[in-house]
Design goal:
Elements lengths: L3 H24 L6 H8 L3 H8 L2 H5 L3 H13 L6 H10 L15 H15 L2 H13 L1 H8 L2 H23 L4 H22 L4
Helix pairs in contact: 1-2, 2-3, 5-6, 5-9, 6-11, 7-10, 9-10, 10-11
């Protein structure tokens, strides 16, 4: 059972995250300060830092959950390769390891994703942080799969997938167009990984 204290902490974290998201979408990442996020969430700057550490962590606050979903899929696979275990999480949703399938994407969600993609693309700070973040997954993926070469190749595929989706959003492609590119381009990369590491 979740305690009242834990529930309040979760509510505060969500309020800060939601406030930051609205500000980033409206003003762009570089134009938002931690003080503005704190004011919008009705907390102190110290509270924001205690929950998230840095402004970049606010933007990428979903990424640890995505990494954990990938690692869990590898760890809990009954049979088959790590690549096969991750394929649905990588190709079946517009959001990596997300709960929403491509078929369920509606216009408001796609437009919100486009705004987020443009916010990231327009910030050199976020672009660098994305690369660093994906690189940081190499060790955990290598440990989970038992293969550092496999993990390095998978990180490259995740970079490819991110670029395919982000480019499609910014070009104002439809969800179906982007889905076809993910299934084709990223799917072929996963096929090659599967052939190269059949036992991983």
């Amino acid at each position: 059972m979740v305690s009242i204290r834990e529930r309040k902490r979760a509510e505060t974290r969500l309020r800060i995250s939601d406030s930051a998201t609205r500000l980033f979408e409206a003003r762009g990442f570089e134009n938002v300060t931690l003080a503005q996020v704190a004011a919008a969430a009705d907390v102190s700057v110290k509270t924001v830092v205690n929950y998230f550490g840095a402004k970049e962590d606010l933007f990428f606050d979903a990424e640890p959950g995505i990494r954990d979903a990938l690692l869990a899929a590898i760890a809990t696979r009954a049979v088959g390769s790590a690549t096969a275990a991750l394929r649905p999480l990588i190709v079946s949703s517009p959001i990596l390891a997300g709960p929403c399938l491509w078929e369920a994407v509606d216009d408001p969600m796609w437009n919100a994703m486009r705004t987020w993609a443009e916010c990231e693309r327009n910030s050199s700070t976020l672009t660098a942080r994305r690369a660093s973040l994906l690189q940081s997954w190499l060790g955990p993926l290598a440990s989970a799969s038992g293969s550092e070469p496999w993990a390095a190749m998978l990180v490259g595929i995740l970079v490819l997938r991110h670029n395919v989706v982000q480019d499609g959003l910014i070009r104002r492609d439809t969800p179906r167009q982007v889905q076809r590119r993910v299934t084709g381009t990223v799917g072929k990369a996963l096929d090659a990984l599967e052939r190269g590491f059949q036992t991983t």
